[in-house]
Amino acid sequence: MQFKSVFMLMAVLLFMSSCQDQPVHRKPVEKPAVILKDLMSFLKYRQQHVKLYETFNAVDSAQQTISRVQFLKQLATGRYLPLRLQSQDQPYYQLYPVEAKVEKDIKNTLKFWGEMEQADAQAEGKSLPDFTFVDMQGNRYTNQNTKGKIVVVKCWFLGCLPCIQEMPALNELKKMYENRKDILFVSPCWESRSKVEAFLKKTKFDYAVAPDQYNYLTDQLHLSGYPTHFVINKQGLISLRSNDYLAMAYVLNREAKQP
């Protein structure tokens, strides 16, 4: 009788163990057919559901766990949709194969987006090339004198409409951290001091704006899209590179909580 009880207990434990080894099949937050119906549907889905700057679980087309690096590498091919799956805790994204019949504009957008996400991720953990930003008040910011501080960098130029449209939101974000002496907000800009000065007389922007940075932004950072935001941690390493200020705000909040 005792032997039978032990046998049954072992069988139950073995069953539970085998169940735990099986991947949990999660349903998507939106059906792929709906997401890929047209470009507008895809862009709406991406805006509402995809936040790859957050910590997330990555799975392949069979919902087997893969690394973030593997996930972004595949995403950069343009052959997969990052399909968000339902979960109660940390987000899950699946590589969902895009069929040949999906319209070309969606495929091109997926590829460009995937390449950007991979490039941004590859910048993480590196240092910015040596810089000297001198703001409109003559304050100097360098790799050396900003060590030990979190540095939020916004790269832009005067003719960039999205760069200007986000400024009110960036002003509010800076205000949230106005009592944090260990957080700096610096904004290198293409144009000359006189042009930037004329712009700032009409448009409020509370970052420390550093003019005359065209060569640095193009030749050193090799930026091709604007605005581009960086969050540099207290060790002087890039925690985030993104053209999405919401991503920047998320990572800044995370870094600000670090001791």
UniProtKB/TrEMBL annotation:
Keyword Signal set for record: yes
CDD domains per the UniProt record, alphabetical: TlpA_like_family
Keyword annotations of the record: Signal
Signal peptide: 1-21
Thioredoxin domain segment(s): 122-259
InterPro entries membership: AhpC/TSA, Thioredoxin-like_sf, Thioredoxin_domain, Thioredoxin_ResA/DsbE_sf
UniProt keyword Signal present: yes
Protein name as annotated: Thioredoxin domain-containing protein
Species per Swiss-Prot/TrEMBL record: Siphonobacter curvatus
